[in-house]
Amino acid sequence: xxxxxxxxxxxxxxxxxxxxxxxxxxxxxxxxxxxxxxxxxxxxxxxxxxxxxxxxxxxxxxxxxxxxxxxxxxxxxxxxxxxxxxxxxxxxxxxxxxxxxxxxxxxxxxxxxxxxxxxxxxxxxxxxxxxxxxxxxxx
Length: 139
Ligand code: FES
Description:
Strand content: 35-45%
CATH architecture of the largest domain: 3-layer Sandwich
CATH class of the largest domain: Mainly Beta
Largest sheet: 6 strands, antiparallel
Distance between the termini: 32 Å
Number of helices: 0
CATH topology of the largest domain: Rieske Iron-sulfur Protein
CATH superfamily of the largest domain: Rieske [2Fe-2S] iron-sulphur domain
Bound molecules: FE2/S2 (inorganic) cluster
């Protein structure tokens, strides 16, 4: 069943969404290493996420790092920049197999980041992701 649990602590926020809903995860550890600020998003800085946090058919948005990771089918991971190619808003949720931009409603496939609903002219920028012992590294 869907779980909505908005937790915001400092700037380290990750959104986890599966077919059934959306969960917001927030890391409340040391924030001294965080860079940037405000609402500007830079795409694809890279980082790590636990593979177990990525739901099959859904994904995890790591907003403060500018990337998201999806798992279209079990054991198959994909990573993308959170920056919407329409006007640069960060995508904000993953639901029903779609990555959704809140600004003008563009949607992208969790399978390959391609546009499934405009106005975005192109898909999300793909990033590299590798799985090492259950930790996904995005670069
Ligand atoms: Fe994403 Fe316009 S910026 S749909």
